[in-house]
Design a protein that fits this description.
Elements: H1 10-18, H2 22-37, H3 45-64, H4 66-69, H5 73-78, H6 80-83, H7 85-99, H8 103-132, H9 138-163, E1 164-165, E2 168-172, E3 175-178, H10 185-210, H11 217-235, H12 241-267, H13 274-299, H14 307-324, H15 331-338
Antiparallel strand pairs: 1-2, 2-3
Helix pairs in contact: 1-12, 2-3, 2-12, 3-12, 3-13, 7-14, 8-9, 8-11, 8-12, 8-14, 9-10, 9-11
């Protein structure tokens, strides 16, 4: 009987990489409760929910990136300028954008980049499960990847089409960002294509079972949670911009924490307590930055300057994450994570 291969173990993967999608639903529940009872910040349920998101989930996962970029001497040496002066340049660019009066556009750009980043992370896990389980037939590759991207981008464009109103998207309160109108047929066409591809995907799995070929269970579960969560967020709920972003990202954040903890254990096996120490520091960092960010959003004005440097660190994370996990170009890293 064919046995599925997992990145770490079935229990670990199911909690961090697949089952952590439940945090998206938990965040929606938190927002609904805050909205119903109007119990903090004069009923500002958006900010209450966003604070929990940014302090407990998002910024801790951003901080964990430094375990790869700065704690790992090989990676730090490889891209030393990017990981030192480069960070400063990111912040300076963000401050220049803020001084020019484009704070809201910067937040919108970071959110859109973040959505794409989340899609790419799910894609990375999809490729990992396909490789581990020798699921590499050309038909399956084409069907898996085309269905995944079509479904994800159908959700992505649907969200920004629905949020757009008279050329603007409301970030929070009177903070709005210009955004071009997207034709309605774009998400509709992508959604139709996804439904057709999904039907073929299901038929393919049924056929494999009938002829006795193994199916890739981790892959199927990941596709179900990634696509299902995004469908739930962007098609079945109507939430403000910041809340939609928080719900979408919560799953990704826990996924990344699990990935980094696995990396820390494998890359630094002799450093006892490393995982716990970095996790504690990351949550401390997240709490401090969460307070500053939410206070800046609440008061706005010059206080938005508090928001900018940490937004640029988030964008730095999005940029470098696409470079530091290139397994095809780093055999040692591949063996560390999957060996």
């Amino acid at each position: 009987m064919f046995r599925s291969r997992w990145i770490v173990s079935a229990r670990y993967d199911l909690f961090f990489f697949i089952g952590s999608c439940v945090f998206a639903f938990a965040f929606l529940g938190l927002y609904r409760i805050a909205h119903h009872f109007k119990f903090i910040l004069n009923g500002e349920a958006v900010l209450v929910t966003y604070f929990f998101f940014t302090a407990i989930f998002d910024h801790p996962h951003i901080f964990q990136t430094f375990a790869r970029t700065h704690l790992d001497k090989e990676e730090f040496t490889r891209r030393k300028f990017l990981h030192t002066w480069g960070i400063g340049l990111f912040v300076l660019v963000g401050l220049a954008i803020s001084i020019a009066g484009y704070d809201s556009e910067l937040i919108l750009f970071a959110s859109m980049f973040g959505s794409y980043h989340i899609i790419r992370q799910h894609y990375g896990f999809l490729r990992a499960y396909k490789g581990l389980n020798n699921d590499t037939e050309p038909l399956d590759n084409w069907l898996d990847y085309s269905m995944f991207y079509t479904g994800m981008f159908a959700c992505f464009f649907s969200d920004y089409t629905e949020q757009q109103n008279n050329g603007y998207i409301t970030i929070y309160a009177n903070l709005k960002a210009w955004f071009p109108s997207l034709p309605a047929f774009l998400p509709d066409t992508l959604w139709l294509a996804f439904v057709v591809l999904l039907a073929f995907f299901i038929a393919r799995q049924v056929w494999k079972l009938l002829v006795g070929e193994p199916i890739n269970l981790p892959k199927i579960l990941l596709l179900t949670t990634a696509l299902g969560t995004h469908y739930f967020i962007f098609f079945l709920t109507a939430t403000p911009f910041l809340i939609a972003e928080a719900i979408e990202t919560a799953y990704h954040d826990v996924q990344y924490q699990g990935w980094i903890m696995h990396y820390q254990r494998k890359r630094f096996p002799d450093k006892r307590g490393l995982v716990g120490k970095w996790l504690l520091i990351s949550f401390t960092y997240g709490l401090l930055i969460g307070i500053l960010e939410v206070y800046g959003l609440w008061q706005q004005g010059w206080l938005m300057m508090l928001f900018v440097p940490f937004t640029m660190l988030v964008i730095y994370h999005y940029c470098v994450d696409g470079l530091i996990w290139k397994f095809g170009k780093d055999k040692a890293l591949r063996e560390t994570m999957f060996g």
